[in-house]
Specification:
Number of helices: 16
Distance between the termini: 29 Å
Structural class: mainly alpha
CATH class: Mainly Alpha
Shape: globular
Number of strands: 0
Low-confidence stretches: 1-5
Largest sheet: none
Strand content: under 5%
Length: 419
């Protein structure tokens, strides 16, 4: 059986999925390019402090978490396609503002500097919460049930391809000819958001449920939270990813690691930053022909353990290509947990609750990337750069042991059976 046999490509017969996956690619590419460029600007133009990199993560995470308590309610009440289009449009406006702020020929606006970057990141966090609550349910609406795991695998694959290219483009353009070219990064950013908007607009969408208008926002949030906390499989999967990403946030420290440990410049940052995504894509290709089905629970637990082990190995890597390989392996094993988690959410969540459950999922997972960046920045300040990364890997492994003890049935999870 080859990687691209008919069964693994069956989902691409669905026209709406093809449009969606193209939009997902350009949206991810734009977001990754934007955040990578912001991190490079913060580190190289304003300060070489790991703590400030962590603060960028916190500036996105706090508004993201706060807004996520409301975004899920509206994702189950309003048209999800319109929410996504509005979100992309807001990202486009933010990219234009970043371009203006970074353009060398507009010196007055450029004087806003670091505060302007933080303000854009805060708005970005708000917008991303609505996208996180809407994108996954939007995709699920036109995917037949038997293709849920395959859709999660390809969705993850395309996301990681975008995550590979975004930082590479940022690193190469930013350091082009030895000069700093953030404005060119943001100009390209604008083009990617426009393409994402066009492909989502081309996707036809019909709501498959009747919105419940009788619930208040508070009641709606309680329903979503109660569903997650009463479903042990969903809660265990979310908790594993939450703490793995929270403590294993080595990616946020890559600019400092590249500079202080590997003694290389921003051009080396791009490829190193994308190595987890490269590993994730390779693993996704494997899962496209051999998805985590009957032994999904075992695969989930061991993949997070491996993520922790390779995070520790990365911390003590002093060779560029060894560091690259270790980060690639963290991405490969992390992607297993991502696909299993998304499959659990698709299989076990009623359609009229997908927005709220996706919002809770995004609070657990989406914000943990940024809070993990903050945790890594604080840990690096007090423990040192290398010990802080190793500490995160050790904590990730301990979390797996704790989750397994709390819910031993997780290891028996079988995605081929109806819940």
């Amino acid at each position: 059986m080859g990687i691209f046999d008919s069964s693994s490509l069956e989902i691409f017969k669905i026209k709406q999925f093809r449009y969606f996956i193209l939009a997902r690619f350009f949206l991810t590419l734009g977001i990754q390019l934007q955040m990578s460029t912001i991190n490079l600007q913060v580190y190289y133009e304003f300060t070489k402090e790991e703590f400030v990199l962590g603060m960028i993560g916190l500036a996105e995470a706090v508004p993201f978490i706060i807004t996520s308590f409301f975004s899920g309610h509206y994702a189950d009440l309003l048209n999800r396609k319109k929410i996504i289009l509005s979100g992309i449009f807001m990202l486009l406006i933010g990219a234009i503002a970043l371009y203006i702020n970074s353009a060398p020929f507009i010196s007055v606006l450029r004087s806003f500097g670091l505060p302007a970057l933080f303000m854009i990141v805060i708005v970005f966090g708000v917008v991303r919460s609505f996208l996180a609550a809407s994108v996954q349910p939007f995709m699920t609406s036109f995917i037949p049930r038997h293709l849920y795991t395959q859709s999660s695998t390809w969705n993850s694959t395309v996301w990681h391809i975008g995550a590979i290219l975004g930082p590479v483009i940022a690193g190469l353009i930013y350091a082009f000819r030895g000069q700093l070219h953030a404005d060119w990064c943001y100009l390209l950013n604008i083009a990617f958001y426009v393409l994402a908007f066009v492909f989502i607009a081309a996707t036809s969408y019909k709501q498959t449920f009747i919105p419940e208008n009788t619930e208040s926002i508070v009641q709606s949030m309680k329903v979503g939270l109660n569903f997650v906390f009463k479903n042990k499989m969903v809660l265990s999967a979310l908790s594993l990813d939450l703490f793995a990403v929270l403590f294993g946030g080595a990616v946020a420290l890559i600019p400092a690691f590249t500079d202080k440990i590997l003694h290389l410049g921003p051009e080396a940052y791009g490829l190193l930053r994308t190595s987890p995504a490269i590993g994730a894509v390779l693993m996704a290709l494997i899962m496209s022909v051999k998805p985590p089905g009957k032994k999904a629970g075992v695969a989930l637990l061991w993949s997070v353990v491996a993520f922790g082990l390779f995070t520790i190995a990365f911390a003590y890597s002093t060779n560029y290509w060894l560091a690259f390989a270790m980060l690639a392996l963290t991405g490969a094993f992390d992607n297993i947990s991502v696909v299993v988690r998304h499959s659990i959410l698709q299989l076990m969540t009623p359609d009229n609750m997908r927005g709220r459950v996706s919002a809770v999922n995004s609070i657990f997972i989406g914000s943990s990337n940024e809070i993990g960046a903050f945790e890594s920045g604080v840990a690096a300040k007090f423990l040192g750069l290398v010990p802080s990364i190793a500490f995160g890997g050790v904590m990730t492994i301990l979390v797996v042991l704790g989750i397994h003890k709390a819910n031993p049935e997780l290891k028996d999870l079988d995605l081929t059976k109806d819940p």
